[in-house]
Amino acid sequence: MSLINKKKIKSSLKAYLFLAPFLVAFGSMIVYPIGLGIKLSMYGQRGARMWYVGFENYTRIFNDPLFWESFKVPLFLLLVQVPVMLALGVMIAFMFETRKRSGAFYRLLYYLPYTIPGIVAGLVWSYIFSDSMSPLGPLFSLFGYTGKILTRGSVPSILLVIILWQFTGYTAFILYSSLIAIPREYAEAAQIDGAANWQIALRVKLPLLRDPLITLFIFNAIGAMQVFNEPRMLGDLVVLPPYYTPTMYIYSSAFSQGRFTYAAAMGIILAVLTCIISLYMLRTASKQILDRQH
Length: 294
Fold this sequence. Notes:
This protein is mainly α.
């Protein structure tokens, strides 16, 4: 064996030893649960007894109207909440950039909601929108509204408010980090050509935020498809069906009805649909970037 081959083997062993903790954690926390979920989805269940049924669970799910009805709220969040949050994040990020002296304070202020766990945030907002304890009641009464604040019809709008409050600051923080990484030479060249500040922001800096915006859209789309904490907490104040969101339907099927294998199959389908949406966004964005380059 040559000296060069020995060095390659030695460097490869060092690399694998360095990666070993991550690979072990990834395999035990990600790969194994996914494999176990796929295996369980292939079985039928009655109590503790299980038997192999193949793709029967998947066939039942594709013919289950409740499962597909549960996607109404995630689709609403995907089409409304995600674009609104990205737009607000961009505006706040530009505000951070203009406020050089007090920027740290505002960044902390906007980032704080993201540090609050989802369950705690759900409890706080459940109190704010409750009919008996809400501090907004007197405010609404001033405008002549004396009805219930939290109803089943208002839950999607309330979810929109909660999620925007919790994640917009984090989104703005990520965009601000990308914004300050843009070389100053671009803005200086535009200023020499006579561009105003708003023109520099919209025509120079905003197009350079395309990649982080795509990444944030995908992450938030995944979050919209998997929303659970907020409607689950609001469900203690207003009656929501167990199939209000896909994750709530999966949770109810597994832990309220004891259909763990059926819930596993629904989880696999939800994961596949989420991956399809993410891949579609990535391919669309990549195609647009390539078209512009050519």
